[in-house]
Structure formats: structure tokens, C-alpha cells
Design a protein that fits this description.
The protein contains ten helices and no strands. It is an all-alpha fold and about 200 residues long. It has one domain (about 5-200): Hypothetical protein af1432.
Length: about 200
């Protein structure tokens, strides 16, 4: 497996082919997930070849956005992995594991192994971080641009429902991110309650 060569190829592809309007799902998000997944591998005790498989999955998890579509981008990323990775020495089993990690990030998340849990938690790590509001705003802008959401009140209601249903999977993020996420959820519930008060 020539991970470093694959990483550089994927980075170059994302930089040149991702649409400009992706204020959330852009190259910066991929690298954030890659960094977080790398750190989670350490804290969760992932070692050896699997570390590079997790890192590769992190790089490819939103690569389907090069097709400029939100729906089904996980499947497109898996197809890209299958087409791209054999030339870098990844085995069919490696690619199956990577595709499993990519597909696990589809909402609602459905990780079945620790590597899949790591990718899922890395993908939504911001839910329990200080940059929650900044990153959330970038997602709102992106969804608005693609006409996938209408209005800030609708967005905040969606956030309450999403945060209420979401759970971190790794022990690391359950400890570090979940309490912070719950604080944001409480803030949003209070805000959304004011919308309902206006209607009374």
C-alpha cells in the first residue's frame, strides 16, 4: 500500500475538482476530518495498516462531492475508492474496509466497527467543539445555496432534531465532545422555543 502517494493524489483531485460553493463540504472539511481521525486512531488504540486505511477513508469520505451532488455522495466516494486505490497497492479487502467506513458516515450514521466509529465521529467532531457555530453557519450557507433548506428558523429546528438524535461512538468523543454538544443543544432548544412563543 502506497498511502502517501494515494493521499497526495486524492488531495490534488479534491483541490481541483470540488465545486466552489461547498462552504461546508469543501477541501477544508476533508482535512479537518483527516486530522481528527488520525488523532482518534491514537486515542482509540488503532495501530498498523488499519491507521492508513482510516486515514484514506477520511480523505475519500466526501470525495463524491466532486459530482456536485449531496444525495448519494457516499456511494460516489466508494466508487472512486474502488477505481482509484488498486493502482496504489490497496487490496480488495482494504477497499472493502474503506468503503464500509465511507458508507457508515451516511446520515443516520451506522458504524459497525471501531474504524467506522472513528470516521463517523471525526466527520461530526465539530458538534462538540468551540467552532460549532462557525461550522454550522457554513453548512447553513451551503444548504441554502443548493436550495436544500429555507430560512434560519427551519435550520435551527433541524439542528435541534439532529443533535437530539446524534450520538458519538468512540469513548474519546463520548468523553470530550458529548458534554459540549449537549450544551449547544440546550442553547438551541431555548432559541427555538422563542419561535413558538411568537406564534402563541
Amino acid at each position: 500500500m502506497r498511502y502517501r502517494a494515494a493521499k497526495q493524489f486524492i488531495i490534488n483531485k479534491l483541490r481541483s475538482e470540488l465545486p466552489e460553493g461547498l462552504s461546508y463540504h469543501g477541501f477544508h472539511h476533508t482535512m479537518d476530518v483527516w486530522r481528527t481521525a488520525s488523532a482518534l486512531c491514537v486515542s482509540e488504540g488503532i495501530k498498523g495498516r488499519m491507521v492508513n486505511l482510516v486515514k484514506t477513508a477520511a480523505l475519500l469520505h466526501d470525495s463524491g462531492f466532486v459530482k456536485n451532488q449531496h444525495d448519494g455522495h457516499e456511494h460516489q466516494g466508494c466508487l472512486l475508492a474502488q477505481a482509484l486505490l488498486p493502482q496504489f497497492g490497496y487490496t480488495p479487502n482494504d477497499i472493502d474496509l474503506i468503503c464500509g467506513m465511507i458508507m457508515a458516515t451516511k446520515i443516520p450514521q451506522s458504524p459497525k466497527s471501531l474504524p467506522e466509529q472513528i470516521i463517523c465521529d471525526a466527520d461530526l467532531d465539530y458538534l462538540g467543539r468551540p467552532d460549532f457555530h462557525k461550522i454550522g453557519s457554513s453548512l447553513f450557507r451551503e444548504l441554502s445555496l443548493y436550495n436544500l433548506i429555507q430560512g434560519e428558523q427551519t435550520w435551527n429546528r433541524i439542528q435541534v432534531n439532529f443533535l437530539s438524535a446524534h450520538r458519538f461512538h468512540t469513548q474519546t468523543n463520548q468523553k470530550l465532545r458529548e458534554p459540549v454538544k449537549q450544551a449547544y443543544l440546550n442553547e438551541l432548544r431555548i432559541l427555538v422555543a422563542t419561535y413558538d412563543e411568537v406564534l402563541k
